[in-house]
Amino acid sequence: MCQVGEDYVEPPPREPPPVPRPGCGQKCVKCKQGDPVVVIRAGDAFCRDCFKAFYVHKFRAMLGKNRLIFPGEKVLLAWSGGPSSSSMVWQVLEVRPHHPQGLSQDSAKRLRFVPGVVYVDEGAACGQSPEDRAKTLAEVKQVLHVVNFPWHLVALEETEALCRLFESVRTLTAKEELLQTLRSHLILHVARAHGYSKVMTGDSCTRLAIKLMTNLALGRGAFLAWDTGFSDERHGDVVVVRPMRDHTLKEVAFYNRLFAVPLVFTPAVDTKAPEKASVHRLMEAFILRLQAQFPSTVSTVYRTGEKLVKAPRDGCGGGPSGPRCLLCLCTLDIDTADSATAFGAQTSSLSQMPPSTLQAEAGTPTAPCCAVGEGPGCCWKARGRTDDAQAQVTQQLCYGCRGNMSDLPSLDRLPPYILAEAQLRSQRAGVMQEIQEYLIEDSSDEAEGPQS
Ligand SMILES: [Zn+2]
Ligand SMILES: [Zn+2]
């Protein structure tokens, strides 16, 4: 089975879109002349040309309505090889000025940004063999040559460390979340390194409806507007936009089939996983099944998502410049005083926990491994250091990310740049605290020296 979703983490195609069978003599509902080839909703049969116009118009309208992308701006298209992101790249290609397949002058005017494509090779995390990875990459390059935009081919990490990290994650849910996090860090890194100020992802409304429900279940309710909205400004200098959010999976499949959009199939972390293997898979099966019976399911969830606002909770320390989650980079919704909330309970229990309990939670043995106790070579000391590092990371995670990271036996296996950032932040916090102490002593008139 292959990864075929519209976004990066996508389900395999469960079945091909049904071939529409319009009634005898029926004509396209738009032009009343063409032979219908696509039925979007009951009764709405479109001819090939009208479907294309409808499809491309949605894409341009989404960009036009939000007015976020400026002429000449460098935009990085995050392409996974799956249907929706491939469809997105194809539309950008088709409405480019001077492109042989380009549309009217009018449409060309609206897309005068400078596109580039990024493809993330995550074969290492998905357990793909080197041969299979090479084969996939050859297909990827073939498509990139056809598209002929500047492109960036990057691998999550070439070392064995990444494989070990992913193998150590205990649940598929945490594995999927971790993969999404690392992938988004990498895409942002590529964008910054090459001067792109926008990143476009191919999330369709079907995918976003599933993501909204999944993230709600994962304790990310506070960040839904960022995670599923049209634009995501959490990174400041690089804004992530989702121009495919009005397209359904069904429309994407029709468009790709009618216009022979090239796709590259790659395995995902949940390939071959049963339906209940992760929150992601379960929610996807739930929404798609509901959608099959009640066709307004996806649009209802999606429209509800549109109403969510991106404001931190009242009374929370995290403004735009407040502390950010180390992994998802959302404003830390820390509310330690309020222990009645799940987050408050989690935070206070973490700070009160002795290091050995933390380890027990993480699934490593708790019995002392040497009988020396306090000696210089005692492993309790070494363990203490590990716990410090673990706590340093955990303290800087949001509620949802803490939940996911609790499924990792050890946070030491996270990529070094994340650990380094965690260390830097807690050092900075330590220095700030020291300065604070001196400031208080300065302000007092007592003639005592600094306490040692
Ligand atoms: Zn027509
Ligand atoms: Zn987070």
Automatic annotation (TrEMBL):
Top-level taxon: Eukaryota
Membrane is among the record's keywords: no
GO molecular function annotation: nucleotidyltransferase activity; sulfurtransferase activity; tRNA binding
Localization in the cell: Cytoplasm
Pathway: tRNA modification; 5-methoxycarbonylmethyl-2-thiouridine-tRNA biosynthesis
Gene Ontology biological-process entries: protein urmylation; tRNA wobble position uridine thiolation
Subunit structure: Component of a complex at least composed of URM1, CTU2/NCS2 and CTU1/ATPBD3.
Purpose of the protein: Plays a central role in 2-thiolation of mcm(5)S(2)U at tRNA wobble positions of tRNA(Lys), tRNA(Glu) and tRNA(Gln). May act by forming a heterodimer with CTU1/ATPBD3 that ligates sulfur from thiocarboxylated URM1 onto the uridine of tRNAs at wobble position.
Name recorded for this polypeptide: Cytoplasmic tRNA 2-thiolation protein 2
Organism: Heterocephalus glaber (Naked mole rat)
Name of the gene encoding the protein in the UniProt record: Ctu2
